[in-house]
């Protein structure tokens, strides 16, 4: 395995399974992943195509700001992270339960 493929394999961190992401998958053939903060749209597209053997139509990314939380008297902050919405071409699908 080349160094480029190893780097692409680390771009996707986890699928996001929520009510909103499930509706997006059912209605628009979109899937939601947590990705590295430094990942670009092109890297996310290449990583999904490499990992799942599908064709990606479009990628939308957004930065999620961490929440401010209290821990007793002290105030802390959760880490910021990046989320990617992947739209697949018609006829392609990802089975997250088996992946």
TrEMBL record:
GO terms for cellular component: ribonucleoprotein complex; ribosome. It holds the Pfam family Ribosomal_L23. Transmembrane segments: none annotated. Signal peptide: none annotated. Keywords: Ribonucleoprotein, Ribosomal protein, RNA-binding, rRNA-binding. GO terms for molecular function: rRNA binding; structural constituent of ribosome. One of its GO terms (biological process) is translation. PANTHER family: 60S RIBOSOMAL PROTEIN L23A. One of the early assembly proteins it binds 23S rRNA. One of the proteins that surrounds the polypeptide exit tunnel on the outside of the ribosome. Forms the main docking site for trigger factor binding to the ribosome. NCBIfam families: PRK05738.1-3 (NF004359), PRK05738.2-4 (NF004363), PRK05738.3-2 (NF004366). Belongs to the universal ribosomal protein uL23 family. Part of the 50S ribosomal subunit. Contacts protein L29, and trigger factor when it is bound to the ribosome. This is Large ribosomal subunit protein uL23. It comes from Methylomonas koyamae.
């Amino acid at each position: 395995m080349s160094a480029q493929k190893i780097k692409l394999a680390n771009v996707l961190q986890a699928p996001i399974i929520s009510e909103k992401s499930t509706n997006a998958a059912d209605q628009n053939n979109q899937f939601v992943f947590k990705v590295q903060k430094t990942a670009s749209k092109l890297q996310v597209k290449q990583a999904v195509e490499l990992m799942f053997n599908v064709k990606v139509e479009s990628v939308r990314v957004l930065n999620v700001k961490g929440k401010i939380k209290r821990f007793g008297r002290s105030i802390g902050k959760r880490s910021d992270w990046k989320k990617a919405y992947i739209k697949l071409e018609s006829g392609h699908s990802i089975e997250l339960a088996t992946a």
